[in-house]
Amino acid sequence: MRYGIAIFPSKTLQDIANSYRKRYDSHYAKIPPHLTLKESFHTTEEEIRQHVKYLRDAAANAKPFPLEVYKFSSFYPVTNTIYLKVKENEILTELQKRLNSGPFAQEAKYSFVPHITIGQNLESAECADVYSRLKLEAIHHTETADRFSLLYQLENGTWTVYETFLLGGAEND
Length: 173
Prior knowledge:
Layout: E1 2-7, H1 11-24, E2 35-42, H2 45-60, E3 65-74, E4 82-86, H3 90-98, E5 115-119, H4 124-134, E6 141-145, E7 147-153, E8 159-166
């Protein structure tokens, strides 16, 4: 089965991202706006149950942190992807490193760039046009990230939450 690890932002930030995603993101209906902490990977359900303890420990040893979106950006020309850029911080970087080591170690396809995708699989001309317009817009949103989720992919390609992990010191809502 295919799994992934991500942070889902607040409804406010998801609404901002979805205002763009519904038009520009081919995965709009498959997963809510998110910040990927671990690229998708394949493992068995038995193995993932064993790895959940590692995820609980990773969450317990990380503190809630500010998730700050401060501009629009793009991965063009590597991929035709437009995103909300998330400001890097030490806690986020360390959490991402931890979630990509131990039982989850695998060679990363790309370097970690904290972001929330708002457009992907666009034609090159459309990507350039949309991005040239968006980079002129101001965006600034800050909230506290206090949890991450282990996800799995269903047969129809949609992603759903397997389990959510609160970061150390966070209280369940």
